[in-house]
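Q: Could you fold this chain for me?
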Amino acid sequence: MTLLQVFFIISGVIILLISADIARRERFNALHFLVFLSIGTGLLIFTFFPGVLDLFGRIFGVQRGADVLVYTSVVFLIYFVLLLLQKTERNRRDTTRIVREMALFREEVRRGEKIHTSPDHR
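A: Sure. Below is the predicted structure, expressed as structure tokens.
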């Protein structure tokens, strides 16, 4: 067994454990769980049965099965980057809204304190 195979086995097991833990805590949806489950399982299958990877390569019309993994990885990485960008933008928008509401509330409180503490209202 090569060092690369050991790395893939450890990575596959870690991905499976983390995805199961995150799914148990309901941190992401079922689609994301299935993607990570597939990645972890795929790593283990391709490590123990490398011929399967070449079969995938022939099915997709590329010379080496590892190329299919690279292309698939790039697509998934782009997908998850887009998800992260969407969440970041939503968080920025929500933060801006909350800060704006807090500023308006502070101004209302400040004006209310002036009204109640001013000598005209005694």
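A (continued): The chain has a mean pLDDT of 86.
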